[in-house]
């Protein structure tokens, strides 16, 4: 039993660390956000709410300058001030921003936040176990190898979540009569908007799939729904 104690402690530590992280994020979001008030976006959000058969979709503005969307662990949806400012400046359309909201709704509906909590805790224990095993054969380097392996696993799981949220958003946008064209158009703009750089060849190391692969997956879904060859 004693030999499993470090793994158990690592698992408990992962759960506590995740809980603390979500508590800190919730406090910051409470302090730095307010409800979105935009007629054009509200009209699109009503369409999506009707498609989901719910009364309304509430979206909040998170007062940070970066361009991003966020699904908080408590289920709230946020757009950053930077993203909203890009929309107000005409760099992003209302429909494109609605596709971000649909994507974040996908993360909430598919339970990705809870899944990440479980994964994070399990990976923390697995990292500890790998470090112990590899460390017996390769002293001092074992933890580095274990950390690298867990980073790759975390990125892979995150990319899976992104594909799932993309598919959810595509289905919702189609059902709401908005279509997937704005979703695809936004992907073409995102790198320039966010200032991101990086080749497609290294995308497997990243937490998000390559843009071209995400667009291809959405187009495949859309063709299947419309019956086109």
Fold and architecture overview:
The structure is a single chain. By secondary structure, the chain is an alpha+beta fold. The protein has one domain (2-19, 31-226). Helix content is 68%, strand content 6%. It contains 8 helices and 4 strands, in the order H-E-H-E-E-E-H-H-H-H-H-H. It has helices at 5-31, 39-52, 81-88, 94-109, 112-137, 142-175, 181-194, 211-226, and strands at 33-35, 59-62, 69-71, 77-80. Strands 1-2-4-3 form a 4-stranded mixed sheet. A hairpin with a 5-residue loop joins strand 3 and strand 4 (77-80). Helix 4 (94-109) crosses helix 7 (181-194) and helix 6 packs parallel to helix 8. It is globular, with a radius of gyration of 20 Å. It starts with a helix and ends with a helix.
Number of DSSP strand runs: 4
Q: H/E series, N to C?
A: HEHEEEHHHHHH
Portion in helices: 55-70%
- Main-sheet strand order equals 1-2-4-3
Low-confidence stretches: 197-205
Integer tally of domains? 1
Strand content: 5-15%
Estimate the mean pLDDT confidence. Answer: 81
What structural class do you assign from the helix and strand content? alpha+beta
Rg of Cα set: 20 Å
Ends apart, CA distance between termini: 59 Å
Shape: globular
| Total number of helices | 8
Largest sheet, strands/sense/barrel: 4 strands, mixed
Key features?
single chain, 4-stranded mixed beta sheet, alpha+beta, 229 residues, hydrolase, 68% helix
Concise structural overview:
The chain is an alpha+beta fold and 229 residues long. Helix 5 runs antiparallel to helix 6 and helix 6 runs parallel beside helix 8.
């Amino acid at each position: 039993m004693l030999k499993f104690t470090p793994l158990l402690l690592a698992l408990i530590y992962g759960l506590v660390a995740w809980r603390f992280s979500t508590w800190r994020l919730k406090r910051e979001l409470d302090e730095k956000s307010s409800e979105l008030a935009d007629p054009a976006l509200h009209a699109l959000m009503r369409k999506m709410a009707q498609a989901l058969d719910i009364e309304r979709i509430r979206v909040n503005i998170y007062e940070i300058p970066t361009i991003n969307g966020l699904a908080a662990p408590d289920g709230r949806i946020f757009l950053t001030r930077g993203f909203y400012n890009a929309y107000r400046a005409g760099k992003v359309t209302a429909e494109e921003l609605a596709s971000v909201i649909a994507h974040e709704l996908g993360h909430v509906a598919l339970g990705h936040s809870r899944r990440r909590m479980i994964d994070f805790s399990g990976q923390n224990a697995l990292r500890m176990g790998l470090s112990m095993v590899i460390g017996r054969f390769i002293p001092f380097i074992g933890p580095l190898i274990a950390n690298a392996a867990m980073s790759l696993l975390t990125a892979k799981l995150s990319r899976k979540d992104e594909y799932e949220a993309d598919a959810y958003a595509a289905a919702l946008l189609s059902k709401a009569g908005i279509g997937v064209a704005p979703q695809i158009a936004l992907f073409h703009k995102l790198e320039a908007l966010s200032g991101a750089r990086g080749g497609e060849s290294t995308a497997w190391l990243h937490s998000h799939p390559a843009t071209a692969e995400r667009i291809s997956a959405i187009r495949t879904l859309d063709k299947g729904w419309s019956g086109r060859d």
